[in-house]
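Letters spell out the chain; backbone shape is given numerically. Both lines appear below:
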Amino acid sequence: MDRILRSSEAAVPNTIAAIMLDIGDRTQKLPHAYFGWAEGNPHEFLMRFILFGEGDIAMVNCEVLHTTKKNLKLRPRIHVSG
């Protein structure tokens, strides 16, 4: 059975980071998130992120986690592939 997690938050990277931190706190295990790498113009991604909340979610998610959890050993893992 597949499980679907839904959220109505505006900022996707922040929501994913918050969920990962909560899962880590509840289970005492490091959660992992897997993202695809987006090819293209970084300025276009920035504008899409500012205007529509879309863009390079993996990078922003990683930065949110870095800001929240300073200790690398306690920080959820982010995996990106192309």
In short: The helical segments are 12-27, 42-52, 57-68. DSSP finds three helices and two strands in the chain. The two ends are 28 Å apart (CA to CA). The chain has a mean pLDDT of 84.
